[in-house]
Amino acid sequence: MTAENIVEVSGLRRVFTTKRSEVVAVDRLDLAVAPGEIFGFLGPNGAGKTTTLLILTTLLRPTTGTVKVAGIDVAAQPDRARRAIGVALQDAGLDPAATALELLTFQARLQGISGRAAKQRATELLEIVGLADAAQQRTRALSGGMRRRLDLASALVHRPTLLFLDEPTTGLDPASRRQVWAEVRRLNTEEGMTVFLTTQYLEEADELAHRVAIIDKGRLVASGSPDRLKAEVGTDVIHLEVSPEHAEKACEAVRELSDTREPGTDATGVSLYVSDGPSRIAETLRLLDRSSIPIGAITVSRPSLDDAFLLATGHRMEN
Ligand SMILES: Nc1ncnc2c1ncn2[C@@H]1O[C@H](COP(=O)(O)OP(=O)(O)OP(=O)(O)O)[C@@H](O)[C@H]1O
C-alpha cells in the first residue's frame, strides 16, 4: 500500500460478542483504494460488508487493525474523517412528509450551511442527481430509484471527495438500478469522486467497479479488476445441469476435460473450466453418456464474477 491511497485498511478485525457466541464479522482484512476509483466490495449476505463500511465511516470501532480514509486515521480522528467523506447507508431514514428540497435543505443546515445558502446547495444537489423536477414532491411519493438518488444527494452536501454507498441498489427494479448506476458513474467521471460501494450483486460489481474485492465469511478471497478476476478463472466454463445426487459422479466422469482448473460442483450441477468450450461439448456428452449420468442442460459461457467467487471459495455466491 502506498501513501497515495484514499482508503487504506490494514489487518482489520471486528468481533461481535453476544451472550451465547462470538461472531468474527471481519477477519484480517487488507484493502487499498486509489483516488478516482469506483471500488466494489462484493460478497454474499453476512459476509462482513456492512460491518467494514461502518468501520470505514467511523460508525463502528474495529476490534483490531487500522483504517485510514483520505489519509486520516478514523479511530484517532473520527470528526476529521467524517468531514472528508460522504455516506449513504441502506434504509437511510427519509422523513416521508418532507419534500426532496426540504430534506436536502435540512441536511445542508446540519452541515453548518446557513439560511439561503442551504436552500441553494439543496437545489444544486437535486440538479446533480437529476431530481430537479421532483424538488417539491414528498419523499413518500418518490420511486425507489429516486429515493436512492436522494440518499446520494444527502451524502454529497459537504462536497466530499470520497463517497461510501452501502448496497445502493438492493431491492430496486432493473430500470431504477441502471439509473442509480448512471448517477454513480457520473459522480465518478464528472465530479471526480472516488466511490466505495458494497454490493451483493455480481452484475453491479462487474458493470460499475474499476476494481473489486470479494469477501466471504469476513475474509478477503480475491481482488482485482473484474476482467482480471474473470480471466484468472480460465477461458470458458461448461456447466452441466445435474441433480445433486449425480453431481459427484458426473464430476468424476468429466474431470479429465477440465484443463485450466479443477471442476467445481454446487447445487445446480458441475462446472468445468476449459480453454475452448464449444470444441469440448461432444466429448463431455460422450463421457457422461458412458457413465449413464442424466443431465438437464449443458451451457458454455465466458467466466463471470460468480465463477471467480466459486474458484476462490469453493461455493457459489448465487444459486
Ligand atoms: N451488531 C451485531 N451483533 C452481532 N453480530 C453481528 C452484528 N452485526 C453484524 N453481525 C454479524 O456479523 C456478520 C457480518 O455481518 P454484515 O452485516 O457485516 O454482513 P454483510 O456482508 O453486510 O451482509 P448483508 O449483505 O446481509 O448486509 C454476520 O454474521 C452478522 O450476523
Automatic annotation (TrEMBL):
<dbReference type="GO" id="GO:0046677">
    <property type="term" value="P:response to antibiotic"/>
</dbReference>
<keyword id="KW-1278">Translocase</keyword>
<keyword id="KW-0067">ATP-binding</keyword>
<dbReference type="InterPro" id="IPR003593">
    <property type="entry name" value="AAA+_ATPase"/>
</dbReference>
<feature type="domain" description="ABC transporter">
    <location>
        <begin position="7"/>
        <end position="242"/>
    </location>
</feature>
<keyword id="KW-1003">Cell membrane</keyword>
<keyword id="KW-0046">Antibiotic resistance</keyword>
<protein>
    <submittedName>
        <fullName>ATP-binding cassette domain-containing protein</fullName>
    </submittedName>
</protein>
<comment type="similarity">
    <text>Belongs to the ABC transporter superfamily. Drug exporter-1 (DrugE1) (TC 3.A.1.105) family.</text>
</comment>
<dbReference type="GO" id="GO:0005886">
    <property type="term" value="C:plasma membrane"/>
</dbReference>
<dbReference type="Pfam" id="PF00005">
    <property type="entry name" value="ABC_tran"/>
</dbReference>
<dbReference type="InterPro" id="IPR003439">
    <property type="entry name" value="ABC_transporter-like_ATP-bd"/>
</dbReference>
<dbReference type="GO" id="GO:0016887">
    <property type="term" value="F:ATP hydrolysis activity"/>
</dbReference>
<dbReference type="InterPro" id="IPR005894">
    <property type="entry name" value="DrrA"/>
</dbReference>
<dbReference type="GO" id="GO:0005524">
    <property type="term" value="F:ATP binding"/>
</dbReference>
<keyword id="KW-0547">Nucleotide-binding</keyword>
<keyword id="KW-0472">Membrane</keyword>
<dbReference type="InterPro" id="IPR027417">
    <property type="entry name" value="P-loop_NTPase"/>
</dbReference>
<keyword id="KW-0813">Transport</keyword>
<dbReference type="GO" id="GO:1900753">
    <property type="term" value="P:doxorubicin transport"/>
</dbReference>
<dbReference type="InterPro" id="IPR017871">
    <property type="entry name" value="ABC_transporter-like_CS"/>
</dbReference>
<dbReference type="InterPro" id="IPR050763">
    <property type="entry name" value="ABC_transporter_ATP-binding"/>
</dbReference>
<dbReference type="GO" id="GO:0043215">
    <property type="term" value="P:daunorubicin transport"/>
</dbReference>
